[in-house]
């Protein structure tokens, strides 16, 4: 293929969440992957320090998962799950119910995190209506929350850019709590910051304003991932739970990033000891092999909706053509078996102290105003270059890629979240590379 052909090829793909013109001037391509590494088309190895997009928890192209998907596509390529079923879907749901928090055992399948969020919000509304509290329609999110790109998730999310462009078309009846980020008091905290549980009291203020009888649910990421790795202050999630309980409000944890070992346990419940009413999953649910997401509900939430409907009636008017797609289920079953066999969630937990040590060894590096970490996630926040916010972050990402390492960047914050199979020497390599790259940025 000559360069003209390549330019033409690049033109047709309108890339998601990408500076398209800038990218197409100097494309960064990934052609193969195995274990901890990507390979570029010219054969260069790139250490995957962010598990793709926080999703390839078991490492790339694992034989067991590849084989399961290959066998499945030959046996049953597709089957509807509307008024029909296929055996793998029930297996995947049961496997998930076995590792989610006690009592959270009813699973609704989707194809992405964004779909999981919109599904969870609809479940929350349906739940209150089924219980005769149909006035509970208001949804509460949080500033700097990311809940995907569909209208529901975007509305409860707190991303200023989205609000600028789409603000006029957001869901009505949504309000937001403030973010928990507090550099003044918490910069360079290791693990959960000490200050900020009182940010949860903002929920009491919103309840006083709107009245509990109008509020359906609160949705938060237990640890906010894509807006820069905001670790929940000690006691914050517990307090949110208490306030929700007091007022009959459902608590939704968006665990699209947190779930499946990232925090050093299966889910946020295992890391922080707080149980939500609904949780949204995607990404590592099947090692990102085939698009898949899920909402896991407390049994009472499911039962209120399902047992509340007339016999023979469809209880919940919702679903996707590809809900519980056979290939996604095959990948999920193989992935969940692999997580269990190799004890990957516990592995993440036992590597976490070393990961924390490595991350905080960068303290003192030029421009760094914060280092944050929990489980196998760490973030490095740089002060923005005066008049050019985001430039330092972008340069760090490009320089890391040139140095053979893939990282994620949000504004001027660099995040690392490697596959849970990472070896200690590779952890050292991540922080050594980052240290050099960050020191080289003006
Ligand atoms: N909720 C949360 C908490 C997420 O992190 C979504 C919902 C949406 O999932 P889908 O599958 O619709 O993308 C996400 C996704 C990043 C990055 O760079 C993060 C996400 C997606 C893409 C990039 O941090 N999170
Ligand atoms: N648009 C049209 C015209 C459809 O027929 C369908 C599903 O049948 C959808 C959208 C929704 O697609 P999906 O179920 O894949 O979300």
Please give the number of β-strands. Answer: 15
Tally of contiguous helical segments: 17
Low-confidence residue ranges:
none
**Helix share, percent:** 25-40%
Strand order of the largest sheet: 4-10-9-8-7-5-6
Structural class: alpha/beta
Quick one: biggest sheet? 7 strands, mixed
Rg for CA atoms: 22 Å
Euclidean distance between termini CA atoms: 37 Å
The hetero molecules present are:
3-[O-phosphonopyridoxyl]--amino-benzoic acid, pyridoxal-5'-phosphate
Mean pLDDT: 97
Portion in strands = 15-25%
- Overall shape: globular
Describe this structure in words.
With 442 residues, the protein is α/β, with parallel strands linked by helices. α4 runs antiparallel to α14 (326-341), α5 runs parallel beside α14 and α6 packs across α13 (299-306). The chain has helices at residues 3-12, 20-25, 51-54, 63-75, 87-99, 113-130, 151-156, 160-166, 183-186, 202-210, 236-247, 268-272, 299-306, 326-341, 344-360, 391-402, 424-439; strands at 32-34, 37-39, 45-48, 104-110, 138-142, 174-177, 215-220, 250-254, 278-281, 293-298, 368-374, 377-382, 405-406, 408-410, 413-416. The chain is globular, with a radius of gyration of 22 Å. It has a seven-stranded mixed β-sheet with strand order 4-10-9-8-7-5-6, sandwiched between helices. A four-stranded mixed β-sheet has the order 1-2-3-13. Strands 11-12-15-14 form a four-stranded antiparallel β-sheet, covered by helices on one side. Pyridoxal-5'-phosphate (PLP) is lined by residues 320-322.
């Amino acid at each position: 293929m000559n360069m003209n052909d390549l330019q033409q090829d690049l033109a047709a793909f309108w890339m998601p969440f990408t500076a398209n013109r800038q990218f197409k001037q100097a494309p960064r391509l990934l052609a193969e992957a195995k274990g901890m590494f990507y390979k570029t088309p010219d054969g260069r190895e790139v250490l995957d320090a962010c598990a793709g997009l926080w999703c390839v928890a078991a490492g790339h192209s694992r034989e067991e998962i590849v084989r399961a998907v290959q066998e499945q596509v030959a046996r049953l390529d597709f089957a509807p799950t509307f008024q029909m079923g296929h055996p793998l879907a029930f297996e995947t749901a049961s496997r998930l119910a076995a590792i989610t928090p006690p009592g959270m055992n009813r699973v609704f399948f989707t194809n992405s995190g964004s779909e999981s969020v919109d599904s969870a919000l609809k479940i929350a509304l349906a739940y209150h209506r089924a219980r005769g509290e149909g006035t509970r329609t208001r949804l509460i999110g949080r500033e700097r929350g990311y809940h995907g790109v569909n209208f529901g998730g975007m509305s409860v999310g707190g991303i200023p850019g989205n609000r600028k462009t789409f603000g006029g078309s957001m869901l009505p009846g949504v309000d937001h709590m403030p973010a928990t980020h507090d550099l003044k008091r918490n910069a360079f905290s290791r693990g959960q910051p000490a200050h900020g549980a009182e940010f949860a009291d903002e929920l009491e203020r919103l309840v006083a304003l709107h009245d509990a009888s109008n509020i359906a649910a609160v949705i938060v990421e237990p640890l906010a991932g894509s807006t820069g790795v905001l670790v929940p202050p000690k006691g914050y999630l517990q307090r949110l739970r208490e306030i929700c309980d007091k007022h009959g409000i459902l608590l939704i944890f968006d665990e699209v990033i947190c779930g499946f070992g990232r925090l050093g346990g299966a889910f946020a419940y295992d890391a922080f000891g707080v149980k939500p009413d609904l949780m949204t999953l995607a990404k590592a649910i099947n090692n990102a092999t085939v698009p898949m997401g899920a909402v896991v509900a407390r049994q009472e939430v499911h039962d209120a909706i399902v047992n509340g409907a007339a016999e023979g009636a469809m209880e919940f008017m919702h679903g996707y053509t590809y809900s519980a797609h056979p290939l996604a289920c095959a990948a999920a079953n193989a992935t969940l078996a692999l997580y269990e066999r190799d004890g990957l969630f516990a592995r993440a937990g036992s590597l976490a102290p070393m990961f924390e040590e490595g991350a905080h060894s960068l303290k003192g590096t030029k421009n760094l105003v914060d280092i944050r970490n929990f489980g196998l996630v760490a973030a490095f926040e740089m002060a923005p270059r005066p008049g050019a916010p985001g430039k330092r972050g972008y340069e760090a990402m490009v320089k890391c890629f040139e140095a053979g390492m893939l990282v994620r960047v949000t504004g001027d914050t660099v995040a690392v979240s490697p596959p849970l199979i990472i070896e200690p020497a590779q952890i050292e390599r991540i922080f050594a590379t980052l240290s050099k790259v960050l020191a080289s940025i003006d």
